[in-house]
Amino acid sequence: MPQLQTLFSTPSPLFSTALPFLSSISSEERTNPGDELFIMQEFSSTVTHLVQSRATAPDEGGLLSGKDPTAYNPSDPLRIWIIQIGLIIGLTSLLSIILKRVRQPKVIAEVLGGIILGPTAFGRIPGFTKHIFPEDSQPYLSLTANIGLCLFLFLVGLEIDAGIIKRNWRLSASVALAGMTLPFGLGVAISYPIYTKFIEAGVAWTHFLLFVGVAFSITAFPVLCRILTELKLLDTTVGIVVLSAGVGNDIVGWVLLALSIALVNAGSGLTALYILIICVAWTLILLFPVKMAFKWLAMWTGSIENGPTLFYMTAILLFTFGSAFLTDVIGVHAIFGAFLTGVIVPREGGLAIKFTEKLEDIVSIIFLPLYFTLSGLSTDLGLLNTGMTWAYTMAIISLAFVGKFGGCFLAARYLAKFSLREAGAVGALMSCKGLVELIVLNVGLSAGILTQRVFSMFVLEALVLTCLTTPLVSIMYPPHVRKLVSSDNPESKHVESSSGRKKKAAQNNRKRRFTVVLDQLEHLPSMMAVTQLIQPASPSPRLTRILSPVTSMQSTAVNSSTESLSDPSAVIVDAFRLIELSDRVSAVMKSSATEYIIHTDPVLSIFRRFGELNDITVMPALSIVPFDDMPQSVSEHAHTQYSDLIMIPWLPPHITSPDDFHSAAHPQQQKPKQSTPGEMRHNPFETLFKSSHTGGEKSASAVHSQFARGVFGKAKTDVALYVDQCSPGLDIPLGRRQHIFLPFFGGPDDRLALDFVIQLCENKRITATVVRITKAELEPPKTLREIENANLLTVASAISTNFPDTVYGQPNAETRLQSDTVDNLAWSKYIKQKDEQARNPASPMTRVEFRELKTPTPLHTALDEASKPSSLDPERNFDRGSPSVQGERVDRQEIEYCRRVLVVVGRSRRLAVEYHGKELKDLMHKHGPVGSEVKKTIGDVGAAFIVAGCGIGLVVLQAAHDA
């Protein structure tokens, strides 16, 4: 038999059973025939049993064998754990996406997810809790959640910076003290009736009193930081005071929690005293010798300069769990030891932020949702089933809010001398409970101090107060009444007085102050190139000052700014660094450490050094905001700094392949690329789902185009978008000698482009060709309504996100006539200046060539004119060869010239003179398609140059709406 052959060929439990049985029989007994028959029968039954058990072992618990995959197995709990964690993370993520739209923190989604999965909702489905969350599996979930809680409290300790407390510590101390004493007193007052009504007799009232007082007086510092960052309050007086008060409140709250746990775990008052003495001693050991050891280890491993090494992270994490173990065995919760370890990690070199970036994802994605979902599983809102219970619940919510809001409001109003709106914002922000109170409540529930009914009442209170924080602050402290910290600085007052300079600059069409948006490292070369072009021809002989908003450098900044403004040829560049505020804790930590990041950020550091080398005054600034708020942040910064022009970069969607590098390095070997409409979509499914790289938008470029369109729509000043078209591997000497081509069609955007080109030509290294193109109709012209429908509104595509597009007011015939009149006046003015200053070599008009053309195909004509070398271009000479190859060489060199020219166009989304949609489609059939995001972002004229690949770069300008 094959089974027996396999059985005897390998070691098997058969031998451990049969051999002792056979050896126990003596040789005399084996000679008895009856005994031999008995032995063979026993041996056969043993073999049959082992073979059957061996055959069925691999299928034990398998889905195909009919086993329940959700059945709990103590020896293998991984299966049910995966089911539980998948359900928890999926539901909380879905709720988080929904609640994020109403600006609610993620902790609300996590607790609500637990409540939905618990006995309140899904738990009422027959068999749900028994199969998904059986009682025997709870210890494994609890173990995982508590490991994550220790790591989370370690991250909370990393967030706390002692330097924050030093800012306005007098005002912050008064707010923090009043925000803890009054709610603690109200918590003590309501604790007695709750204790007599709902708490079991075995619990001491003093223990319950402490937990209620701590729950009433504590503020959720991590949630508070995120709310301050999302509402952009960190640079306001309210934000700084609340942040400092929140740090102090958080530290005192954890100390009170440790005291409460020590009293609960101690059998007598003397034991509690010993626990507190040991806890204080361990805290002092951590704050002094261990903290110095951590700093030495960080320097020895190079973690401060290069980020935490693997060895350093291993040592810190081992010490974190060791500290948690020590505080747990002495009678204080393990989270206190983990929290203290996070506090003593060195802050030098941004080490705490880098350490947080290493751990936060696994903690926030897996561990933390488990903990707060367990809180929701322990919450049964069905227990709030009587009028008396709801009365006490409403009393808890009201007193918790009144105590926290009232105490902080009174301190801010009468001690800090804040206005009513500012004091109200302070009170609303400090009322945020969030995850910290939930941790306190879970500790009380696990210690037996709180019953499930009382626990549910306090969880509901924490959810309500946390949900109310953001709406209350938005109502009480709207953006137009906020007082920035820098408004009291001399630098900001100087900026206020520069409004007259802005009006004067607007009159002579000269731009002196530029806001350069820096959001990604790959955009830095293009922004440096275009910034170098706006540099004056003869910069003043002075050392460049690198202006900084930091208080310690205010005097230097003011003096340098005053000197720059007094120089009529000086250019001031606001290097505005944008960082997206993500859901990560490290992003929030960066937002509260802008003074450090503004000096260490690599993008700003490179741009500052670029300014030093080119004698350009650079004023660095930093903003950490959500992606949807980035356009508004750029607009507000430019408006506050009275910027004349906002410059933003954009890399359009393109294909980078080895062929691109080869064609760039060897243009003479490049074969002409023919494309037909049929070649635009090779795959019918790509056409259906718009997933092709040729027609569909690239995700990264489409997202950035939404940002650019947002700036176009929200900006209150002129905007320039620089589109980098430099081919891979192509060496272009941009910034030394450059020729510019401007097709002038008319409208406010084209007039702005004309003024901008004339200003650039003040630099002797720059020449320009300006061609005014008028359409000569060969067919009946488009009606005014058709032009408006094509150019006025941008209709979002089916796959675009819900991002607002640029929509302008409805023009009328009178407005268009006025615009045409201004076009003629602007053109005539520069033509006249060129005639008058033709013999003045210092005049920029000697470096500008003006031409006028009429054509039925304006876009094709613009592309042809851009490829023709100008007589003003120093690099216009062609290498003439034999007549047989002369035409081919000239055509190839014209293509190469077209690639090296810098094209400047108007966006022409507002008051467009001509409709170019049909001609643009012809160009797309000839050169290949382009994504709809390109046309929406830069307009038809700019899209034509992108399609044709003409120009090393493309500058698209949009005039302010009042232009």
Automatic annotation (TrEMBL):
What subcellular compartments does it reside in? Membrane
Annotated GO biological process:
proton transmembrane transport
Region (Disordered) residue ranges read 486-509, 658-682, 852-889
**Protein name in the entry:** Cation/H+ exchanger transmembrane domain-containing protein
Where does the Cation/H+ exchanger transmembrane domain start and stop, copy by copy?
92-473
Species name: Amanita muscaria (strain Koide BX008)
Query: What are its GO cellular component terms?
Result: membrane
- List UniProt keywords, sorted A-Z: Ion transport, Membrane, Transmembrane, Transmembrane helix, Transport
- Bilayer-crossing residues are 78-99, 111-128, 140-160, 172-195, 207-228, 240-264, 270-288, 309-326, 362-384, 390-412, 424-449, 455-477
Lineage of origin: Eukaryota, Fungi, Dikarya, Basidiomycota, Agaricomycotina
In alphabetical order, the GO MF annotations are: antiporter activity
